[in-house]
Specification:
single chain; alpha/beta; 6-stranded parallel beta sheet; 15 strands; 36% helix; binds NADPH dihydro-nicotinamide-adenine-dinucleotide phosphate
């Protein structure tokens, strides 16, 4: 399978080029950048044969089967539409788009054209999260009553660009991290939030965008979810807790790109640590995407998952701005 990278980004350099090349027979043919110098340097550094500044020229290459889109958030929509129109399979970064309508259009067009479309929500690929979901599915904690996600991090210095100061590029902690938490909670609970309330603000880093948010979501089963995302917490650590009628799961340091963390389950029988697999999250995601293109199975998070995580994040933002409870609009999905 031959890939084209749309975006000379950090996530491509740090994780995705390696994950693509870890798949049997996969190769990367080209990279797109808005700067010819940066594109050429990126191509050289990563041993990629070609770099482009023109998307149509890049997509005209018939040897390319799939694209990975990791530009800033406002570019995902037009670039994904062009790639789908060109008949390419698409793995797109989160958030899929700036609006729900745009995200829904991307997913519908991909279905119409018969290409695989997936969202790069990495967390549901983690051994830790697969183990937690296994515990829930096996009934080990009974009926889920509530969940708490804490995902307040200290945004590394090198990521303090458009994320903290450019609303037009999709900056802010809600499009950056709340989407991941929405996807992870949907993955664990197997249901979609109905309504949210939220407070958001800046706590020292955001310039014109929120850098911190807390929200509460109600779920169809009656379960309640509490979520906290921030860019400004140096020592908070991340995690997720899921509390059920027969037990509770406590997972620490698992809202991360690395296969790390600890999971503990507490029930009437006592308390124990839960082991989990330490595979690379992005390798698994790429493996499932590659399988889906070959007609086997589905991507770990497909386009509808991307639409739904965006829908929750947009509802959280609207609730924080309006001070009112907001019903989540899934755009018909
Ligand atoms: P970067 O800031 O590294 O890259 C985004 C764009 O910024 C690039 O496409 C590039 O534009 C431009 N850019 C990169 N380096 C420079 C530079 N030195 N000077 C000027 N412009 C530059 O973004 P991230 O990699 O952090 O994020 C990209 C996307 O991936 C986002 O949508 C984000 O939400 C998502 N993401 C997802 C993660 C996940 O685990 N699923 C983790 C991290 C990010 P050009 O291509 O035109 O050269």
């Amino acid at each position: 399978m031959r890939w084209a990278l749309i975006g000379a980004s950090r996530i491509a350099s740090s994780y995705m080029i390696d994950a693509i090349r870890a798949q049997d027979g996969a190769g990367i043919q080209s990279v797109l950048s808005s700067s010819s110098e940066r594109g050429a340097a990126f191509a050289r550094e990563h041993d990629i044969p070609e770099s482009f500044t023109d998307l149509d020229a890049q997509l005209a290459d018939d040897t390319v089967d799939a694209v990975y889109i990791s530009t800033t958030n406002e570019k995902h929509y037009p670039q994904a539409l062009a790639a789908i129109e060109a008949g390419k399979h698409v793995l797109c970064e989160k958030p899929l788009a700036m609006t729900l309508d745009d995200a829904a259009r991307m997913v519908r067009l991909a279905a119409e054209k018969g290409v695989v479309f997936a969202t790069n929500h990495h967390l549901r690929n983690a051994g830790s999260h697969l183990a937690i979901r296994g515990l829930i599915e096996d009934g080990r904690i009974g009926e889920v009553l509530s969940a708490r996600v804490f995902h307040a991090v200290n945004l590394p210095e090198h990521l303090r660009g458009w994320r903290i100061n450019d609303a037009a590029a999709g900056g802010g902690v809600i499009p950056d991290i709340t989407v991941h938490d929405a996807d992870t909670v949907r993955f664990h609970l197997g249901e979609d939030p109905i309504e949210v309330v939220a407070k958001a603000g800046t706590s020292g880093m955001g310039q014109g965008v929120e850098d911190s948010v807390m929200s509460v979501w109600s779920m169809p089963s009656g379960a309640m979810v509490q979520a906290h995302e921030s860019f400004t917490h140096q020592f908070a650590g991340t995690g997720i807790e899921i509390h059920g009628s027969k037990g509770s799961v406590f997972a620490r340091n698992v809202m991360t790109q690395e296969p790390v963390g600890q999971i503990r389950i507490v029930t009437a029988e006592g308390e124990r640590n839960v082991p989990f697999d330490g595979h690379n999250l992005y390798h698994r995601s790429l493996g499932l995407f590659t399988g889906a293109v070959a007609g086997n199975g589905r991507p770990s998070a497909d386009g509808v998952d991307g639409v739904k995580s965006l829908a929750v994040a947009l509802a959280v933002r609207e609730a924080a701005q309006s001070g009112k409870a907001v019903r989540v609009d899934y755009g018909g999905f």
